[in-house]
Structure formats: C-alpha cells, structure tokens
Amino acid sequence: MPGKARRAVRRGRHGHAAVRALGLMLGLAVLGGCDSDAVPGADAGAGAPAAGAAPARAWTIPAAPGTIARGARLYAEHCARCHGERGEGAPRWTQRGPDGRWPPPPLDGSGHTWHHDLATLKRVIREGSPAGQGNMPAWGDKLTEEEIEAVIAWFQSRWPAPIRETWLEMNARATRG
Q1: CB neighbours (10 Å) of residue 173?
Q2: Where does residue 54 rank: exposed (0-12), middle (13-18), buried (19+ CB within 10 A)?
Q3: What does the angle CA 78 – CA 58 – CA 107 come to, to the nearest 5 degrees?
Q4: Angle CA 150–2–155, to nearest 5
Q5: 102 strand-pairing partners
C-alpha cells in the first residue's frame, strides 16, 4: 500500500470506527469464505484462472467512456435493492443476520470490497455468495461479462482516490501472479 494511501486509510478520511470495521471485515472475509487470492501476498496459485479462461487484461479506473454510466444503470436495476442506492450497503452489514448470513456489504469503498481483486469481484457477481456466507444471488445467467465489468467500474468510480490507487496496485500484483 503506498504511503499516502496507507496514511489516509489509517489516520484520516475514513475515521477510526470505519478503520476498525474494515479490519473486522478483512478478518471475517479471511475466515468467512473469501479465497486466498483476495488477500495480497496469499498463495499466487490459488486464484489462477480456470483452464480456457480469457487471459487477464489491464484494468483501469475510470473505464472506457460510457462504461460507468452503463454500470450505474445496471447497478440501479439489479444491485441497489440490496447494496443501497449509492453502494452504501445494508444497515449493520458487519453483523450476521437472523439467518446466520452476512448482509450485503457496501461497495462504495467504505467496506472490504476493495480488498478483492478483479477476478474475485467478477466471480462473486457471476456465481453469488459462497455457500452459507451471504444471500448474493448468481448473476452470471442474467448479466454478460461486459455488464458485470460495467457494474464493477461504476462502484469502483465511487471509491476514494487512495482506495482506488491501492486497489489498482493490488490487482496488478494479483494478475501478475
């Protein structure tokens, strides 16, 4: 994590409660079913693409013109009901619900979503929550790969600059393997 981003996350922009919640969610993510490829420094082979998968390509924020606007429309149609109109997540998203599952987390940079590389984000949208972890449905039969990428581009466009910069570096490391 670059020094500037590390200091912004540690000291400032997100507040102490948000930093504690972020630490809690990272711990829960590691214990609660996130793959090791979501954590920088984890086993590089764990998140390798499946045989026949398209090779990874460079990912940039902002995306191509029109992608973010398209992602905003798709997000409003398919995601906002659970993740909130602005990607703020469900209330009490850090506490398991009565069904024992995690509520939808924020996607606006205030939660743990930015700890996951692009392959993980796409997989969770395409396949849904890992069994028993959350209630995220699989969208792979409803959204194309390009639509999934547009939704990701939209919510990433809402992340604070230090978070985006840190994520881009982490994702680049994950893609290099």
Answers
A1: 13
A2: exposed
A3: 30
A4: 20
A5: 134
DSSP symbol at 65: T
Residue 81's identity, in one-letter code, is R
Q: Judge residue 167's burial from the number of C-beta atoms within 10 Å of its C-beta, 0-12 exposed, 13-18 middle, 19 or more buried.
A: buried
Phi (first) and psi of residue 147, to 5 degrees = -70, -40
Maximum distance among all alpha carbons in the chain? 44
Taking the C-alpha atoms of residue 111 and residue 93, their distance in angstroms, rounded to an integer, is 9
Report the C-alpha gap between 129 and 102 in whole angstroms: 10
Lookup: tokens for 69: 């606007």
pTM, two decimal places: 0.67
Hey, what amino acid is at 105?
Answer: P
Q: What is the pLDDT of residues 134-169, one digit of tens each?
A: 999 999 999 999 999 999 999 999 999 999 999 999
